[in-house]
Design goal:
Blueprint: H1 2-23, H2 34-45, H3 47-52, H4 68-80, H5 84-110, H6 112-123, H7 126-131, H8 138-155, H9 163-179, H10 187-197, H11 202-229, H12 246-260, H13 285-288, H14 292-306, H15 314-335, H16 349-364, H17 370-392, H18 399-417, H19 424-451, H20 481-488, E1 496-501, H21 503-513, E2 517-520, H22 532-540, E3 544-548, H23 565-576, E4 579-582, E5 585-589
Subcellular location: Cell membrane
Pfam families: PMT_2, YkcB_C
Transmembrane segments: 82-103, 115-134, 163-194, 206-225, 288-307, 319-337, 343-364, 376-394, 400-420, 427-445
């Protein structure tokens, strides 16, 4: 009873600390990613925009993702009003839920001590603190992947309900509705581990796997079917596609194109750092690299310890599930040639945490074995060296920390080699010091991440100007008060108060005015929506008031194919309508 009470107190403390870290000063980032914030605003004004994830309440074009995450934020802002807090709180709560679900999953596999370590590592991962305080769809994706893995752990047990696999497939499907095909990266791992390790006859395994597939198809397929059968003239254009098709979006721009770099209408290949070093490099190292080598070492060592156990052993199954997730996702992220951003690595965070949570206690409990003692020492030394290298990339930020981590880490690593000769109390003290040395680097970066406001489409982890894109990279436009007032005046007399090329440009003006602003060409300005003929019809029928002349945000933007409709529309407007310049921005009056 006393142990149960202590565990309950520890879990409550972990979740409370996580909630504080993710909720503290949450509104400091304002609209965060204004591209998604504008879609949330549109969903709060129009149910059609909410269903389809439209960028504006007049439903010209959708965001370039399925709208699962927008649905959650949209319901919140409808209940509590549209502001930064009502939009971002659901994201933070998803982070707390992910830590809680990871704790439950790892506890089932390896007990409360392993679960507490795993939950702590996830909460202290910088990219997790970044994404669970931001409005990108990755928060819902990660939560659903953790839920799915936990359900599979339940499903493999003897006498488990057949509904666990259905729930696992359903969770993957909801993850698909958040970020499309990225959700299915772990699907082969979950399916194979269940087939091999489930404690039931083969026939039952196959039937339940089919149940999981049915749950996936039902939870994700209904939306694809809805969009495909809905009359295209009665819904917004599917942003990110070239043929107004959500299937094309899922398989192309947000699917195979991310692996090959052949994304029509995208930004072209971003494979300058492709290879095994990417996850520890200058862009991805800060968000996720701190404990990545430790997770691999813990995974290998843990599997070596439990490999001869029965195939139904829960600890062995846990390592296979989380280790498979870790390795599969790491390989894909390292070698994909298309659009990939550092914050994507949040999909690695639960797997890193679980492998460390399960593997390290297994090795620690056998520390009197020279092989395990050497493994603990190597893990500690490797982790502190990685922390030292990552901290040196920000030499002006807490310069004392990098040397402290290195000295304490290497000292404890040497002591761990001879840990069998230490007294039990001394061994625990050395182990605790080694753990602190390994975690203090990511802890400091997590605190810095939470304390730093983030805006733009590519937020960065760490202190201001940290790893990722530059501050405000691919951010929304910031119209002056006079320009916003001009656009907002008489906005109710038009379907769209204004139109502008690019979703980030449109989002900034829409958030400033509260009125629908058409994003010509979608996110990159390369979608054929609207066509020149459609735009001319909108203008001549008095549905658009202004056209805003603006360049696409983001340095060095290079189009990778796609429609040139936006360029043709701009040329036609410039040759046809009168304009005025307000605070440096050229505004064409289509209603003249």
């Amino acid at each position: 009873m006393r142990g149960s009470r202590r565990e309950a107190v520890a879990v409550v403390a972990l979740l409370a600390a996580t909630a504080w870290a993710y909720l503290w000063d949450l509104g400091a980032s304002g609209w965060a990613n204004g591209f998604y914030a504008a879609a949330v605003q549109a969903g709060s004004q129009s149910w059609t925009a909410w269903v389809f994830g439209s960028s504006d309440a007049a439903n010209a074009i959708t965001v370039d993702k399925t709208p699962g995450a927008l649905w959650v934020m949209g319901i919140s802002v409808r209940l509590f009003g549209f502001n930064a807090w009502s939009m971002l709180v659901p994201q933070a709560l998803m982070g707390v839920a992910a830590v809680a679900m990871l704790y439950a999953a790892v506890r089932r596999a390896a007990g409360p001590r392993a679960a507490m370590l795993a939950g702590t590592v996830l909460a202290l991962t910088p990219v997790a603190a970044l994404i669970f305080r931001f409005n990108n769809p990755d928060a819902l994706l990660v939560l659903m992947l953790v839920v799915a893995t936990h359900c599979v752990q339940r499903a493999v047990e003897r006498d488990s309900s057949r509904w666990w696999m259905v729930l696992a497939g359903t969770a993957i499907g909801v993850g698909f509705l958040a970020k499309m095909l990225q959700a299915v990266l772990v699907l082969p791992v979950l399916a194979v581990v269940f087939l091999v390790c489930a404690d039931m006859p083969w026939r039952s395994r196959l039937l339940r796997l089919c149940g999981g597939a049915a749950g996936l198809v039902a939870s994700a397929g209904w939306y694809l079917l809805l969009v495909e059968v809905w009359p295209s003239h009665a819904r917004p254009y599917i942003g990110g596609s070239q043929n107004n098709s959500i299937v094309e979006l899922a398989l192309g721009y947000n699917g195979v194109g991310r692996l090959t770099g052949e994304e029509v209408g995208g930004l072209g290949n971003l494979n300058h750092d492709v290879g095994w070093g990417r996850l520890l490099g200058g862009e991805m190292g800060g968000p996720i690299g701190w404990l990545l080598p430790a997770a691999v070492i813990a995974l290998v060592a843990g599997l070596a310890i439990v490999w001869r156990r029965p195939r139904t052993d829960p600890t062995r199954i846990g390592l296979l599930l989380w280790g498979g997730w870790l390795l599969t996702t790491a390989v894909v992220f390292s070698w994909m040639n298309g659009i990939v951003h550092p914050y994507y690595t949040v999909a690695l965070a639960p797997a890193v945490a679980a492998c460390i949570g399960i593997g390290v206690p297994l090795v620690w409990d056998r520390r009197t074995d020279p092989r395990c003692a050497t493994t603990l020492a190597g893990l500690t030394a490797t982790t502190t060296l990685v922390s030292f290298i990552l901290l040196q990339r920000h030499p002006s930020w807490l310069p004392w920390l990098q040397w402290t981590v290195l000295m304490v880490g290497l000292t404890t690593a040497l002591l761990l080699v001879v840990v069998a000769r230490l007294t039990p109390r001394s061994a625990v003290a050395v182990g605790a010091a080694a753990l602190v040395a390994c975690l203090v680097g990511p802890f400091a970066y997590t605190v810095a991440t939470a304390a730093t406001p983030h805006t733009g489409a590519v937020p960065s982890a760490g202190p201001s100007g940290g790893f990722g894109g530059p501050p405000g990279f691919l951010d929304i436009s910031r119209p002056s008060a006079q320009l916003a007032a001009t656009i907002a005046a008489d906005a109710g007399d038009y379907t769209w108060a204004a139109a502008v090329v690019g979703s980030n440009n449109a989002a900034g003006h829409q958030l400033a005015t509260g009125a629908p602003v058409m994003a010509v060409g979608g996110f990159n300005g390369t979608d054929p929506a609207p066509t020149l003929e459609q735009f001319q019809d909108y203008a001549r029928s008095g549905r658009i008031h202004y056209f805003i002349a603006a360049s696409m945000p983001g340095p060095g933007r290079t189009d990778h194919g796609g429609s040139d409709a936006a360029e043709r529309i701009t040329e036609w407007v410039e040759a046809t309508f009168p304009f005025q310049v307000i605070d440096g921005t050229t505004l064409y009056d289509l209603g003249a």
